[in-house]
Design a protein that fits this description.
Elements (H helix, E strand, L loop, with lengths): L3 E7 L3 E2 L9 H13 L12 E5 L11 H8 L8 E4 L5 H14 L5 E9 L5 E2 L15 E2 L19 H12 L3 H20 L27 H4 L21 E10 L4 H4 L5 E10 L8 H13 L6 E6 L4 H14 L13 H4 L6 H16 L3 E8 L3 E9 L9
């Protein structure tokens, strides 16, 4: 049995301390679910057999199984169960992979998947002492991003910052600051154009009681020359800046996945088949390269060569790791670098950790339908050395694109 994508929706992605900062993450998740179900008005919510939801933090208002909380807040029947998955930045893509496996196995016909992150509202935490009332000071630790409360048994080479990992990656592959800034400027330019041309209009649902209708981080006037003036963020002589890396963001995404025969219950025809999926892991410092291997494995499982791939949605955690991935895929047969993130990427759109996988998968399905290409890849890098990838098969291909 195969799993199919029926619909996708997400909130606009807000900037850190921006337009969505007053919205709880469980409410953001509920908003994404509400927007998704509005696309399938014939679907009885009780027919949803599972919610699988991604979240990378889990330390704040989303702490108590946000999948279940979001379903209840969205008004789904109490009979719809929910489970939250944490694979850091890949959490919602992992949720989609888990949901599709449930359908492949015959354990469900309709699964609602997605993810959420409010990086603004991620709390500070205090380590709990072994005994009460320690005599020394205790430091509050931010849970917004990256390592915290690190186990001392972990090798220090593995626990360097995400930015330092990518500075090491650019040294290894020779990715210049100029290429990174040009890539970042392209992300903003394409994202602004996509919004202006209406590409995202039916993929994004505004959050009630907020004024944000577009992704808040896009700067249409961004240029590589302007980005070149920013100071490095992680090394005094480094190449990575706030301008060529993804920003801290808030948002949620949702996808409706089902079996082929679920079409009559959903009230929609499926738009794409989940043809392959894979997870892969490398040395923790090499997480930026992990999507290369994950995508290769997913394509092999789908029986699809890179030459047949007509669209790629790669989460742009950093420009440098995105360029490393694109360069590798071009050597493996990807036809054109312009097939990657043709509607902009996370550097412009934003990267609310737990929501980004759902965003790229929903975007990929629409890009394939708009282009008529048959196969596409959604891929994402994940801190501590992991990567995920999903291959989609477009069910509405043009004759010339059926290769």
């Amino acid at each position: 049995m195969s799993a199919f994508l029926y619909a996708a929706s997400r909130t606009p992605f807000g900037r850190f301390n921006g337009a969505l900062s007053a919205v709880r993450p469980d409410d953001l998740a509920a908003a994404a679910i509400t927007g998704l179900l509005a696309k399938a008005p014939g679907l009885e919510p009780a027919a949803i057999e599972e919610i699988v939801w991604g979240n990378a933090n889990g330390a704040g208002e989303e702490n108590r199984n946000v999948a279940r909380m979001a379903g209840l807040l969205a008004g789904l029947p109490t009979s719809v169960p929910g489970s939250t998955v944490n694979r850091l930045c890949g959490s919602s893509l992992d949720a989609a992979m888990i949901g599709s496996r449930q359908i492949d196995a015959g354990d469900a016909e309709i699964v609602l998947v997605g993810g959420v992150e409010s990086m603004t509202r991620a709390p500070w935490v205090l380590p709990k002492p072994a005994k009460g009332f320690p005599p020394g000071d205790v430091t509050a630790v931010s849970t917004t991003l990256g390592w915290r409360l690190v186990n001392p048994a972990m090798p220090t080479a593995w626990t360097v910052s995400l930015g330092e990992c990518n500075e090491q990656l650019q040294e290894r592959f020779g990715i210049s600051r100029e290429r990174q800034d040009a890539f970042a400027a392209r992300s903003h330019r394409l994202a602004a154009r996509a919004w202006d041309e209406g590409f995202y209009d039916d993929l994004v649902t505004p959050v009630a009681d907020t004024e944000l209708i577009r992704d808040e981080g896009i700067r249409a006037d961004t240029t590589a020359e302007g980005l070149a003036g920013l100071n490095p963020s992680f090394r005094a002589d480094g190449t990575i800046t706030a301008g060529n890396a993804s920003p801290l963001s808030d948002g949620a995404s949702a996808l409706l996945i089902g079996s082929e025969r679920a079409s009559s219950v959903v009230g929609l025809a499926p738009i794409a088949r989940i043809a392959g999926r894979a997870a892969y892991a490398l040395d923790p410092r090499e997480f930026g390269y992990a999507p290369v291997v994950a995508a290769n494995h997913a394509l092999a499982r789908a029986g699809v060569a890179w030459e047949r791939v007509g669209a790629v949605e790669l989460n742009e955690a950093f420009a440098v790791q995105s360029l490393v991935c694109v360069d590798a895929w071009l050597t493996l047969g990807l036809r054109d670098a312009e097939l990657v993130n043709a509607q902009g990427g996370a550097i412009a759109l934003g990267h609310p950790l737990g929501a980004s996988g759902g965003r790229i998968l929903g975007t990929l399905a629409k890009v394939l339908r708009a282009s008529g290409e048959r196969y596409g890849v959604a891929a994402i890098c994940i801190g501590v050395g992991q990567g995920l990838a999903v291959v989609l098969e477009n069910l509405d291909t043009t004759a010339e694109a059926t290769r």
